[in-house]
TrEMBL record:
Its cofactor is [4Fe-4S] cluster. This is 3-isopropylmalate dehydratase large subunit. [4Fe-4S] cluster binds at residues 355, 415, 418. Pathway: Amino-acid biosynthesis; L-leucine biosynthesis; L-leucine from 3-methyl-2-oxobutanoate: step 2/4. It catalyses: (2R,3S)-3-isopropylmalate = (2S)-2-isopropylmalate. Belongs to the aconitase/IPM isomerase family. LeuC type 1 subfamily. One of its GO terms (molecular function) is metal ion binding. The gene is leuC. It comes from Sphingobium amiense. Its EC number is 4.2.1.33.
Length: 473
């Protein structure tokens, strides 16, 4: 029998099980189980491999898909039909690289194509206790399965491609415990925004967040992914939730997850993946789920957020001069008046999609508020499934008809209007109710104004023509 461990946290267990070598002062070389590759951050990594004459260490542990630059209106023409030259070149380069290095690839025309953080879990590539990296900050999404998953830079991606390992500095741990239950019509997205509003965009810097508590356990897998996805917006290195039966049920239905005997053996291990009694987090944040309202951002940072029943803050009331001037800048960019209710703010666009809220559950929540209404005159509303599978599932349920009949546009899968790397963009001063995760200046197009919110809230805004409490629908 091996010597018993002292009590350990969830993330330490996964970490310890992947240490290839200690590099001193807590830094380690970690084995990486799964490397997800997109078209944006991989070109130089492959270029580096080529220059060094190296191969990919474990092509089978790697999977590539183009998601950021793909148009979402029409796929008939394939990659060659991408009009924007830089976008087309990125996708073509990815296709050349995966062919040359023998990496599994989900092509644009595959029914499985989609945002990498949505298709990984769908395929069953996201497993509890595994280490997952991607040259993309929202890799934290996969922590919903009890994986240790983080975004990496391009040179790190090259290192992982070449060695299947990654140098990691020690991380600290933050427990976010959410007691009690979220109210009716309050979602994981609202919880994520509430947390960021509370601890700030730097609140979890250097930490791996472990989410726990009644309201977290009660979330379905889609909600858990939304929550872990936004960990990065609080500055965290990763977000994790201890795997439970909901994870096992999801994986039992996922095509590439272990099956039969292998699944049973894996589950024996997965059940050990929780923080031990007596293991201590570096920080603990306690949230009462009953305090969480449907949230809407008013500024250009996810922490500039408020409940739907609240007002746009008045910078004059902010004592700290730096914070005051920051709030003034944000309000000027957003074209909002201080002291006015956030509800009632007119919108030009609505975007329902992204790796935060582009899953079937999100589309159902958005469709549920339609209730025979139509998108308000002058508003353009996009529904963009996070993957081809989400799209197919929605169509099988008739959600596409509901959306189309109500005046929403029904699109192909991709990052779409989450960020301006493809044709789906806001124009200057256009205001968008968006289910994405970042409201930075210009994020959805130069001069565009983003209000982050949940799918139900974005759909309700599209139907009303202004920001509104979806619970009143
Ligand atoms: C383009 C990519 C590197 C970027 C990220 O790392 O997150 C994008 O996905 C984003 O959401 O801003
Ligand atoms: S959907 Fe948005 S946040 Fe997610 S990977 Fe794409 S651009 Fe990044």
């Amino acid at each position: 029998m091996s010597a018993p461990h002292p009590p350990r946290l969830l993330f330490q267990k996964v970490w310890d099980d992947h240490v290839v070598a200690s590099m001193g002062e807590g830094a380690v070389l970690l084995y990486i189980d799964r490397h997800l590759v997109n078209e944006v951050t991989s070109p130089q990594a492959f270029e580096g491999l080529r220059a060094a004459g190296r191969a990919v260490r474990r092509p089978g542990g790697t999977i590539a898909v183009a998601d950021h630059n793909v148009p979402t209106d029409n796929r008939a023409g394939g990659v060659a039909a991408i009009l924007e030259p830089e976008s087309r070149e990125q996708v073509e380069t990815l296709e050349r690289n995966v062919a040359e290095f023998g990496i599994p690839y989900v092509p644009l025309r595959s029914a499985r194509q989609g945002i990498v953080h949505i298709i990984g879990p769908e395929l069953g590539l996201t497993l509890p206790g595994s280490t997952i990296v991607c040259g993309d900050s929202h890799t934290s999404t996969h922590g919903a399965f009890g994986a240790l998953a983080f975004g990496i830079g391009t040179s790190e991606a090259e290192h992982v491609l070449a060695t299947q390992t990654l140098l990691q500095q020690p991380a600290r741990s933050m427990l976010i415990r959410v007691d009690n239950q979220l109210g009716a019509g309050v979602t994981a997205k609202d919880l994520a925004l509430h947390i960021i509003g509370r601890i700030g965009t730097g609140g979890a810097t250097g930490h791996v967040i472990e989410y726990a508590g009644e309201a977290v356990t009660a979330l379905d897998m889609a909600g858990r992914m939304t929550l872990c996805n936004m960990s990065i917006e609080a500055g965290a290195r990763a977000g994790m939730i201890a795997p439970d039966q909901k994870v096992f049920d999801w994986l039992a239905a996922a095509p590439l997850a272990p099956k039969g005997e292998a699944l049973e053996r894996a589950k024996d291990y997965w059940r050990t993946l929780k923080s031990d009694d007596g293991a201590v987090h570096d920080r603990t944040v306690e949230i009462d789920a009953r305090d969480v309202a449907p949230m809407v951002t008013w500024g250009t940072s996810p922490e500039a957020v408020t409940g739907i029943g609240s007002i746009v803050p008045d910078p004059a009331a902010i004592a700290d001069p730096a914070n005051r001037s920051q709030a003034e800048t944000m309000l000027a960019y957003m074209g909002l008046e201080p002291g006015r209710p956030i509800a009632g703010t007119p919108i030009d666009m609505a975007f329902i999609g992204s790796c935060t809220n582009g899953r079937i559950e999100d589309l159902r929540a958005a469709a549920a508020v339609i209730g025979g209404r139509h998108v308000a005159p002058g508003v353009r509303a996009l529904v963009v499934p996070g993957s081809g599978q989400v799209k197919a599932a929605a169509e099988a349920e008739g959600l596409d008809r509901l959306f189309i009949d109500a005046g929403f546009e029904w699109r192909e899968a991709g990052c779409s209007m989450c960020l301006g790397m493809n044709p789906d963009q806001l124009g200057p001063r256009q205001r968008c109710a968006s289910t994405s995760n970042r409201n930075f200046e210009g994020r959805q197009g130069p001069g565009g104004r983003t209000h982050l919110m949940s799918p139900a809230m974005a759909a309700a805004a599209a139907l009303s023509g202004h920001i509104v409490d979806a619970r009143d629908f």
